[in-house]
Amino acid sequence: MQMIQLAAPLLGLFLLAGCASKSDFDSLKRDVEDMKARQIKSDRELSAIRNETREGLDKSLQDAQKEMDGIRKMNADLQATLEGVKVDLQVLAGKADDLSIQTRKPSDDLALFKEDTDRRLGVLEKKTLGLSRDQEAVEKQVAETPDALYQAGLEAFKAGDMKKSRELFARFIELYPKHDKTANSLYWLGETYYNDKNYDQAILEFQKVVKNFPDKEKVPAAMLKQGMAFINLKDSKSARYVLKELVRLYPASEEAKRAREQLKGLK
To answer: Are 150 and 127 in contact (CB under 8 A)?
Structure first.
């Protein structure tokens, strides 16, 4: 439309000027007609695009409305299902209450029977308590003889039960502080701490063997394990001192041989 509006003044100028030929006029007229045709075509295409856009928008709105209707229906169905479940639960709750009432009396009878049985068992326990205590005392006395207690500690150590072994050897040392196997019990007590990686406590127990029983055969072994414990604690200085003392005091022992090997690796 704008093209036509521009062409009209131009045509008027040609006419006013009077200098345009008929062929020029015809050519200009054809151009104007072409512009009119193109303008009409453009208007039609624009109208078609508008109609198409409007139809697409209407269809989208219709589809969205259908989806909303479907969601509303789904929600209504779900609500109806929930209501049905609620009713079923109420029915079940009522049946459970009825069953509880029906079974309450047998439960009360059972409770009375249990109470009476517990009372009778209590009387029997009191009668047998004195006998069981006497039996336990005899068994404990037999189990805590020096040889039996020491052997039990060794067996627990070999089985890997460091806690039980430690308790048994500590009991032995408490009951028999002057026994020939007390030094060995102290050594094995240190071994239980060493195996549990409680190296500080192990060193203290091994030192008791070295200090209190210097003439016993377990002294070299105790000193070697002291040195190993210091190595595990990253205390090279103390480890070197103990191992050198072991080599000096017991040069021909098997423990001294192992001590020399350990000293080679210390910086």
So the answer is: no
Give domain status of residue 179, yes or no.
yes
User: For the chain, where are the alpha helices, taking DSSP H only?
Assistant: 2-17, 22-143, 146-158, 162-175, 182-195, 199-212, 219-232, 236-249, 254-265
Q: Which residue has the tokens 């002291």?
A: 226
CA separation for the pair 255, 206 (Å, rounded): 14
Domain range for residue 63?
2-68
**Identity of the amino acid at 49:** I
Residues 56-78 have pLDDT tens digits of 777 777 876 787 777 787 767 76
Domain count, the chain: 2
Q: Which amino acid is at 71?
A: I
Residue type, position 169, single letter: F
Question: Does position 211 have pLDDT exceeding 70, yes or no?
Answer: yes
Inter-CA distances, 18 with 23, 28, 31, 206, 221, Å: 13, 14, 19, 136, 138
| Residue 16 confidence class, pLDDT cut points 50, 70, 90 | very low
Tokens describing residue 6: 């521009």
| CA–CA dist 179, 85 (Å, integer) | 80
Nearest to 165, CA basis, from 185, 146, 182 = 185
Same-domain check for residues 151 and 257: yes
